[in-house]
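haha ok so turns out i had the wrong file open the whole time. this is the CORRECT one, sorry everyone. sequence first:
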Amino acid sequence: MRKSLMALGSLLMLGGVASAQKVAFEEYDLDNGMHVILHQDNTAPVIITSVMYHVGAKDENPDRTGFAHFFEHLLFEGTENIERGEWFKIVTANGGNNNANTTDDRTYYYEVFPSNNLELGLWMESERLMHPVISQVGVDTQNEVVKEEKRLRVDNQPYGNLIAEVKKNMFKKHPYRWATIGSMEHLDAATLEEFQAFNKKYYVPNNAVLVVAGDLDINQTKKWIEQYFGPIPKGAPVTRKSYKEEPITKQFRATYEDPNIQLPMVIAAYRTPSMKTRDARVLDMISTILSAGKSSRMYKKIVDDKKMALQMGAFNYSQEDYGMYIVYGIPMQGYTAEDIMKEADAEIATLQTELISKKEFEKLQNIYESQYVNSNASVEGVASNLATYYMLYGDVNLINTEIDIYRSITREEIRDVAKKYLNPNQRMILDYVPAKDKAQN
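then structure:
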């Protein structure tokens, strides 16, 4: 009887989760080309206003890298109607919090407020878009902020240049080849007019999506959106170049010396397709099999059982145009980079030749079901997902249907995709080692 009650309880709980997973939304365009997505969730008195701009590090001039990330900071400096230094004070004084982040593909700003401050959030984001003050004092201030961020997060962080070094070697033509944070020399050399031109080109309504999610009244929200965003002039159409990388057909090596580390790391990087492809999702699953958690194949064998590595992992680094599949490891004393890479290759070869067991496949599917639920568990998560699926994937409803893609992936596809992309002749090996003067101390 107790088991029956527990089973019934589980069934009811799963039913609740299943119904909660469906994210309802409404989308439309303003006359100036700005895309709007609304999601109503009245379960808590919280609202998020967010704007994603289709501009990232890949849109920069090769001689002026770091602009997109710089604007992530610069556009908090103030507007014609929000005095310099007042942005964060206004947000906190009204019970909110806010932030922004930048990738190679897009820049995202958001405010979270109690729902009675929805109009304030919309006004502030419209101010950022319509009346930004791009001044020399703001540029100089944020230049120092970005330099300090680079010192803390990159220059003085152990293995802080890992992704940047992989990208630099993996891409020869595509702008993915430079770091998102960019070059401090480029930022120092840039003129105020260059920053103003970048703003005028990319921070326009027709290059943005506005997402409002949470405890909102749809009709009132639409009126405020029209009031605050409707008058913003449409910008010139944003045109982008496309870049085609030649396939990697022969393994090559690179070396980077990091003064912040004592233990060397070896990295194998394979170029992979856009995150919009089915194969990219299969590669996500492959990384979960190989290195998600201590029971994963690579960790269990190389770290736990054989004790050859202090750390071992793999992940799929997906982006709008291309991706990278990255395998990394730190050898234990007495073992070399070649030793642990040989073991990693053996695990990949097993995936390429043998189907994973039904039990492991079931566990894998459960992991992705859980990730799907968790990604939409907060209004902030829903807003970010809605913006991302519209801006980078071109299909907002993927917030509800992408899980079906993962559900439909077969064991045979996992084998075939591993065989298609993860071969030794298709990769770069990066020896990420201590700086020579560091190693001698």
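Residues 1-20 have pLDDT under 50 and may be disordered.
again sry for the mixup
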